[in-house]
Amino acid sequence: MVDRGRLTVVVNPSAGRGRALRLLAPVCAELARWAPDVRVAPTRDLAHAGELAAGATAAGRVVVALGGDGLAGAVAGAVARLGGVLAVLPGGRGNDFVRGLGLPDDPRRVAASLAQACELRVDLPEVDGRPYLGIASVGYDSDVQVIANRARLLRGRNVYTYATLRALAAWRPVRFTVTVDDAAPRELYGYTVAAANSAYYGGGMRFAPEADVTDGLVEVVLVADAPKRTFLALFPRVFTGGHVHTRHVEVLRGREVRISADRPFDVYADGDPLAPLPARIVVRPRALRLLVPSSASVVTGAGGDAPAGRDATTGRDAEAGV
Predict the structure, then answer these.
(1) Which residues are paired to 61 by β-bridges?
(2) Using CA atoms, how far apart are residues 126 and 29, in angstroms rounded to an integer?
(3) In which element (H, E) is residue 285 found?
(4) Which helix (H) or strand (E) holds 32?
(5) What is the pLDDT of residues 81-124, one digit of tens each?
(6) CA–CA gap between residue 34 and residue 103 (Å, rounded)
(7) Rounded to an integer, what distance in angstroms lies between the CA atom of residue 128 and that of residue 151?
(8) DSSP letters of 135-201?
(9) Backbone phi, psi, residue 266, to 5°
(10) What's the Rg (C-alpha) of the chain?
(11) What single-letter DSSP state applies at residue 105?
């Protein structure tokens, strides 16, 4: 039995270049306005975060993750395994999972709004057994993430835009083999393969605009080869989701994805490397009990009819010519 009045705030002190630590006291003050028992558990690393979350869950406490998307994913795995309840506050650099819920980027406001919260069952994908909440991707995105993780003077959208442009200079296409569920393996020569549980990554890039955290599927986004000048011209569309309407992008859906490539890459999700290729991604449908404010607007676009003029399988505009 989980007691919503007993909270353990698992915080990454270094998240967002110390942003989470600076906001910890006011966040706890907001939580304490409605929860009589609020405790703080600082993490050393993602493995330690999972241990802290498991201990709190076993004690019947709600786990509140204050940090980046990577912390939220690591904590989610431990909470889901033990049947606990998780709340996520935006304390990192990108905060894309919270963005996908339609919540503000201020963790104090989210903490206050949890007083009027409901429980939502959401999917939890895993890369070779390691859970994540947002988008797992590999290829060009792997190179981008390495550069972004080394950047120290930028945050949010700026750091990922910088890393995207810098990685392009040395990029050469990859030959991927991708298998979705029981379909025949397909070859992709290009940039990136991604398995999206939610819509956003990279500090606000709407990479999988119809991803649905409750439908038991991931959006499999395949970005094919294109001249670098074309890639640059199309790049701004990723912030609105318009890139999926072009002939260079194909979107599939499935419960299991297997990915291999003709050279080594790590699969990254929520800012962290999860597994090397070849890798297997599987969805655990509705495995996580997530506490969200009643104001949350969870994206649930994948389960409905495709908009007029779009192909329901690929998600592209029928007349897209770019």
Answers:
(1) 3
(2) 34
(3) strand 279-293
(4) helix 15-32
(5) 999 999 999 988 789 999 999 999 899 999 999 998 999 999 99
(6) 19
(7) 28
(8) EEEEEHHHHHHHHHHH--S--THHHHHHHHHHHHHT---EEEEEEETTSPPEEEEEEEEEEESSS-B
(9) -100, 140
(10) 19
(11) S
Distance of alpha carbon 247 from alpha carbon 75, whole angstroms = 37
Could you identify the residue written with the tokens 């353990």? 8
Distance of CA 26 to the CA centre of its chain: 26
Indicate the residue type of 174.
V
d(CA 147, CA 77): 27
Write down the residue that tokens 């709004």 correspond to.
113
Q: Which of 5-14, 25-34, 93-102, 295-304 has the highest mean pLDDT?
A: 25-34
Asked whether 133 and 157 are in contact (CB, 8 A), the reply is no
The widest CA-to-CA distance across the chain, in whole angstroms, is 58
Amino acid at 218: V
By residue count, the chain amounts to 322
pTM (global) more than 0.90 = no
- CA separation for the pair 24, 151 (Å, rounded): 24
Instruction: Report residue 271 as tokens.
Output: 């800012």
User: How far is the C-alpha of 273 from the C-alpha of 85, rounded, in Å?
Assistant: 25
- Quote the tokens at residue 315: 């998600």
